[in-house]
Amino acid sequence: MRFLFLRQTLSWISPWLIWLGGFYGLWALFVSSQGLWAVVAEHWPMALSMAIGSYAAGSTPMGGGTVGFPVLVLLFDMPASLGRDFSFAVQSIGMVSASIFIFCRRQLLAWSMLRGALLGSLLATPLGILYFAPLIPELWVKLSFAVIWGSFGILHLYRLREITAHDHAGDPRCPKDFRVGLLLGAVSGFAAVSVTGVGIDMVIYAALVLLSRVDLKVAIPTSVVIMAFSSVVGVVVKSVTGDWQPGVLGNWLAAAPVVALGAPLGVFVVGLIGRKPTLLVVALLCIVQLIWTCVSERATLGLAGTLIALCSVLVCLAGFEALRLLGLRRAGNRNAIVAEDDALPVSHLAAGS
């Protein structure tokens, strides 16, 4: 019996193990051939930070860059553009690894919205990296990140019970969801991913749980896959243009081996302990980094800049609430249709009698 269980486990997990073996082999070959072991050791704090970040990447609708960005930018006082480029690089390993693990487990995904978001991101993220991100000052990159994830954290503090109660799996062929995914994927790819390296996962997740009222077991894996895809797009664009920030390679070499295992581990462990505690902790961290950013940049921002940042959070929250109200309306219509369909056989029987 144990042998049969082990054989079945290896059969479904083998593609992920092949990917993992290939990555570690190429990583070790590159580090050894270039004599970079000292560089890897020098950047051990980033590897330690991403041990936590990669778990959050696999278990929540937040990319690994959500931890990597503030660690580099707020803790180590690095440029915000370095935090963005590092997010692309590290997520292209960690979240891709988590996505392969998700596919191997055959987890349900919200395919209709996901297909739209993939197309929107593919078209808009390169344009944002090339033409929009260079126009944004470093300070506003920091604030954009802080506002996006701060509002996300506040949302979960007061809507967590409702969000975790959804049990709808989503319609894999819903044209409305495809159009919503296309629009949100394009807008967030152009305006958020290109600037901060993250954001599209949170936007698609918010649309799924607030508008489509989809189960977290479907919404979170879907957000992982779209962020993995957008990160790979970002890596390709950055590599083709040669526009990588100095310092990305050393941090990536230290963190990549950790996130390759950490993100899939998050996918697995959260199924055992539940998503509610993890989401609550991550929400609090998001709010802490918003406060940290505003306090650390108060001299540059001044009162007016701080008020603009806080008002931006309120705008994001208003957008979330608008999605939620639309979602309640759609859910009401869907329930009415189901109730009507359930009543049809009764009416037919009554007519027949």
From TrEMBL:
Q: Where in the cell is it found?
A: Cell membrane; Membrane
Tell me yes or no: is Signal among this UniProt entry's keywords: no
The UniProt transmembrane annotation reads: 16-40, 52-76, 88-104, 116-133, 180-206, 218-237, 249-273, 279-295, 302-320
Q: Which InterPro entries match?
A: TM_pro_TauE-like
Keyword Transmembrane appears in the UniProt entry: yes
The record ties this protein, via Pfam families, to: TauE
Q: How does it sit in the membrane?
A: Multi-pass membrane protein
Keywords per UniProt: Cell membrane, Membrane, Transmembrane, Transmembrane helix
Q: Which family does it belong to?
A: Belongs to the 4-toluene sulfonate uptake permease (TSUP) (TC 2.A.102) family.
- Name of the protein: Probable membrane transporter protein
Q: Which organism is it from?
A: Microbulbifer salipaludis
